[in-house]
Each structure stands twice: as structure tokens, then as C-alpha cells.
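--- STAGE predict ---
source: upstream dedup step, 1 unique chain passed
mode: sequence only
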Amino acid sequence: MPELPEVETIARGVHHRVRGDRIVDAWFSSLPQPFKTSPARQARGLAGRPVLAVHRTGKHIVFELGPQAAQPPLAASAPDAQWIVHLGMTGRLLVTALDSPIPPHTHARLSLASGRELRFVDARRFGRLEFRNLRQLETFHAPGAEPLSIGASQFAALFRGRRLSIKAALLNQTILAGVGNIYADESLFRAGIRPQRRINRVTRAELEKLRLALRQVLTHAIRLGGSSVSNYVDANGQPGFFQLEHFVYQRAGEPCRRCQSPIRRIVLAGRGTHYCPKCQR
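--- STAGE serialize ---
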């Protein structure tokens, strides 16, 4: 599943390419898909709206949209609606030429006034698409805290009183929004914390090391375009490169790049989990 760096990379790429463009019309597949808003309502709501901005919120890509031609704006330069994309396990969001071949498993096609198309492709159909009219609904917010900007005291407070493992807590989207399996493993390695440690046995100083490691890992992964360990590509169809710098993720049995001990793999919180038994305590 694309995590924060991959979603951020895609959102930035789409923003760069479609900001200021206008959605002419929208088509949605009739195949079963867990749409949060019906295809017909999405198509009606999206048609004719300008794209003001595209950004990431948690693991979601949010399109800020202006009013349709017949509607007066809510306020000067304020968004009038939002289109919210969750990529699920295999979702891709691509900006292409109108006449480019349509990939299999394409479930949404937004025709743009510039003559291009924005396409949502999802082989396993776990992605979610939602339209919000901000005249009727509140602005979308991620359920958890933003790991790239949270401060030390706020970060420590997120884990206070919890008894689950530190890895399970990092994967809980109501605690931190956007962190998934790859970056939980990589951040815990850099912080020197074993993923199975209970939160009540992690010190405040170790939590601060984890907060800083998490920010460093996520920021560096964004610079490298994310991790292409499955079918992830950015808005231009290009892979990321952070997988070349993984210390533990998917390196079970290989020597640790710091101490040469074999990397171990266990199942924790229902996910394959990788760590170094010597570097992490």
C-alpha cells in the first residue's frame, strides 16, 4: 500500500501538472469499487470545476476544487468542493494525454480542459474515491496526527497510557496519519527500538529519537520519490528509489548494514515486520 512518501510524491506531481486546469467531465467504471460517493454523484459534482490545488492529508490525496460555472464562490479563492482519493493497495493516479492507451483496471477518467486526462487505476479495487460539496459537508481531515510536523510533547502524548506494541501504534492511522509498514520498520531501526516493545516500556527519550527518525526517514523518502517495492509509480508513471536505501524492510536473512547481523522477520500486528536483533533493543 502506498504510504506517506508515495502519496506525497503523487500529490505534488499531480498538483504541478493540473493546478489551474478545469475538469470538463468525469467517467467512472461500473465494476464493483468501494466508492465513498456514488459514481453518478461524483460525475455530476466534478464536472466544470477548476482545480485550485492538490495536496496530501494522511494517506489521502485531496483535490481542492472551485465552484461550477453556475455557482457563486463561497469566498474569494476558497475551495468550494473536494475530491478525495485513497489509493488502497494498488491504486495509481496518472496524468496522461487524452489519446494515450487506457491501462487495464482504470476506474475513473477525468477529462481536463487542457486536453489531458486524470486517470485512477486500481487492479485490486481497494481504493476509495469521495466527492465533498463544502456547501454541505465539512473539509476533509485525516484521523491521526501529521508525523512531519508534530512536536515532541504532542508526539509523546499520542502514546501515553497505551499498552500495544510500538510497531502496532505506528500503524494505527488514528494515532499517526500516513505511516505504514515500510516506514515504521525503517524508523524503528534508525531509532534503535525493537518493533515488538510495548509502549509502556519505551522511554520518553526513545520516543523523541523515534519522532526524529520518523521525520528524517519520511523526508528523505519523499526526496527520492518513495519506495517502489510493488507496483507504485508517481503521477508521471516513474518509480521511486528509496527502496535502494532500506536498512531492514524486506531484507530478512541479509546482513545488517551496520553490524552485519542477519535481519529478522516476524509477524506483528498482522504485518511482516523486519528488524536487526543487535542494533534494536
